[in-house]
From TrEMBL, chain A:
<dbReference type="GO" id="GO:0046653">
    <property type="term" value="P:tetrahydrofolate metabolic process"/>
</dbReference>
<dbReference type="Pfam" id="PF04267">
    <property type="entry name" value="SoxD"/>
</dbReference>
<dbReference type="GO" id="GO:0008115">
    <property type="term" value="F:sarcosine oxidase activity"/>
</dbReference>
<dbReference type="InterPro" id="IPR038561">
    <property type="entry name" value="SoxD_sf"/>
</dbReference>
<protein>
    <submittedName>
        <fullName>Sarcosine oxidase, delta subunit family</fullName>
    </submittedName>
</protein>
<dbReference type="InterPro" id="IPR006279">
    <property type="entry name" value="SoxD"/>
</dbReference>
From TrEMBL, chain B:
<keyword id="KW-0547">Nucleotide-binding</keyword>
<dbReference type="InterPro" id="IPR036188">
    <property type="entry name" value="FAD/NAD-bd_sf"/>
</dbReference>
<dbReference type="GO" id="GO:0046653">
    <property type="term" value="P:tetrahydrofolate metabolic process"/>
</dbReference>
<protein>
    <recommendedName>
        <fullName>Sarcosine oxidase subunit beta</fullName>
        <ecNumber>1.5.3.24</ecNumber>
    </recommendedName>
</protein>
<dbReference type="GO" id="GO:0000166">
    <property type="term" value="F:nucleotide binding"/>
</dbReference>
<comment type="similarity">
    <text>Belongs to the SoxB family.</text>
</comment>
<keyword id="KW-0288">FMN</keyword>
<dbReference type="Pfam" id="PF01266">
    <property type="entry name" value="DAO"/>
</dbReference>
<keyword id="KW-0560">Oxidoreductase</keyword>
């Protein structure tokens, strides 16, 4: 079973007490934005085979949203971090680089 | 191709079965094809078959990274139905269902289509209203379904428990001509027919890159070398996101794991397909006697072809309530497939940002039932370069235009 450490309450939470909330670091576009930007924000997804950044919610716990870096091919978890950030922290990026040198995900690498 | 027939069986029986030929050839790739289809699953092979049959395009290669029909085509629960709410879906899935009716004859290959009937149980008041609405919509669409009461459900499924503690059975949406088919045979039948038309099915050949020039595809790089093409069809289900990455565009899809399981074989006890969408489990009995069980998807992106165990537990728990005899069954095996799910839970059959590259993807958890219809529509799209009436509504542009085919609401469940 997938286990993620909640960066807020510190619990090693099992998948059953978490809820997957989709892609992380989405740039939000609202009224007044172009059709392409709005479509991209609402529907287009990275869906990579490999490193992925995603939002999770500690639903049956502290209830907070957080981010996780995970590999979709091996289910390896590189780490979790609070959601109040626009990009993944350097230590998590380094951990990914140790496993997948030269990785990239959207503009991050 | 030697036709299969009762006479052929008698002939081979008389000579110790030494005369059967291979069902399809396994050639090395040529330098160039008119059309390359990536993905030798049901939809890919059906697309190739109808390219040949309906449009006379037979210089076609179907490239498969694994083995033929080894992805979701060989991993689903083989349910065939067309009781969808939205008009475009009903048209597409009903086309597929009607093609299943004559598929064994059309392909000269027994796909064991068994129109045993499909019930979708209504277990809440809102489900009753939802399915009554679907039954009315189906009547207008020319898809034969009816809403039936609990007593009729009990007559059709004697092993069902109508008075479950949480979700009693209040009725059901009944499609008499829905049913099941032999999923592998569908892939094998199409493959044999494609090979017979001169198409090349190239297995164990992974696409590693999509070669482009001036916004058009010129060919693909594969583990067996580069292959050129005039037109490219991407029909790779769960791997669509990965191939789109190679081709340089994004898709409105995410890939997640969907699991199924089968029990030990038991004597015949249920001769229809039953789907319980509120509690999220569906079940049918295979010809071997195994109860074939499906449930829900995982919530997170995954390419591992195995799912989380707690979903198996949830699915079986739901079924035990509705079918108490399930609690005495031993499960034989469990497996997962990777399905690509779109925002509105309807597939994409349409053009891509690359002019001569077309895509058939996003079938989510319900691609098997659509194989002949999806192949028919995708073949038309590739042959003409423009979508035909079946696929007109299913282009990716529907997301930018806000013209969704919203089946997630219609089914109330990932189907």
């Amino acid at each position: 079973m997938l286990t993620l450490k909640c960066p807020y309450c510190g619990v090693d939470a099992e998948e059953t007490e978490l809820h997957a909330e989709g892609e992380a670091h989405l740039k939000r576009f609202g009224p007044g934005s172009s059709d392409d930007d709005f479509e991209s924000y609402l529907f287009m997804r990275e869906n990579p085979k490999g490193v992925h950044f995603e939002r999770w919610r500690h639903q049956s716990g502290c209830g907070k949203f957080f981010h996780a870096a995970r590999c979709t091919m091996t289910l390896q978890v590189f780490g979790t971090y609070p959601a109040q950030t626009l990009e993944p922290p350097q230590d998590i990026k380094d951990k990914i680089s140790a496993t997948y040198p030269g990785w990239s995900w959207r503009e991050f690498q | 191709m030697r036709r299969y027939s009762a006479f052929a069986i008698a002939r081979e029986a008389a000579r110790f079965h030494t005369g059967w030929e291979r069902a399809w050839r396994s050639p090395e790739p040529k330098k160039k094809y008119d059309v390359i289809i990536v993905g030798a699953g049901g939809h890919g092979l059906a697309t190739a078959f109808y390219l040949g049959k309906n449009y006379g395009i037979t210089n076609v290669a179907i490239i498969e990274k694994g083995w033929l029909g080894g992805g979701n085509t060989g991993r689903n629960t083989t349910i065939i139905r067309s009781n969808y709410l939205q008009d475009p879906s009903a048209a597409l899935y009903e086309k597929a269902r009607s093609l299943y009716e004559t598929m064994s004859q059309d392909l000269n290959y027994n796909v064991m289509f068994s129109p045993r009937g499909v019930i979708m149980l209504a277990q809440t008041e809102s489900e009753i209203r939802g399915y009554q609405r679907t039954a009315h919509a189906n009547a207008l669409q020319g898809v034969k379904t009816e809403f039936i009461g609990p007593q009729r459900v009990k007559e059709l499924v004697p092993i069902i428990n109508l008075d479950g503690p949480r979700y009693p059975v209040l009725g059901g949406l009944w499609q008499e001509r829905g049913g099941t088919g032999r999923h592998d045979a569908v892939a094998w039948g199409y493959a044999r027919a494609c090979s017979d038309m001169g198409m090349d099915i190239i297995q164990k050949c992974e696409v590693t890159g999509v070669r482009q020039e001036g916004g058009k595809v010129t060919g693909v790089d594969t583990t067996k070398g580069p292959i050129d093409c005039d037109k490219l069809g991407l029909v790779v289900a769960g791997n669509s996101g990965d191939l789109a990455n190679m081709a340089g565009f994004r898709l409105p899809m995410e890939s997640v794991a969907l699991q199924a399981l089968v029990s030990e074989p038991i004597k015949p006890c249920m001769d229809v397909v039953v789907m319980a969408n509120t509690v999220h489990g569906y079940m049918s009995q295979s010809d071997k006697g195994e109860m074939v069980i499906g449930g829900g998807t995982d919530g997170f992106n995954n390419y591992t072809q195995r799912g989380s165990f707690h979903h198996v537990e949830e699915t079986v728990r739901a079924l035990v309530e509705t079918f108490p005899m399930v609690s005495r069954l031993k499960m034989l095996r469990q497996w997962g497939g990777i399905v690509d799910v779109t925002g509105d839970r309807s597939p994409v059959i349409g053009k891509t940002p690359l002019g001569n590259c077309f895509i058939n993807a996003g079938w989510g958890t319900g691609g098997f039932k659509a194989i002949p219809g999806g192949g028919w529509a995708t073949a038309e799209l590739i042959a003409k370069g423009e979508p035909g009436p079946l696929s007109a509504e299913f282009g990716m542009e529907r997301f930018i235009e806000g013209r969704f085919i919203d089946e997630s609401v219609a089914a109330g469940v990932a189907h």
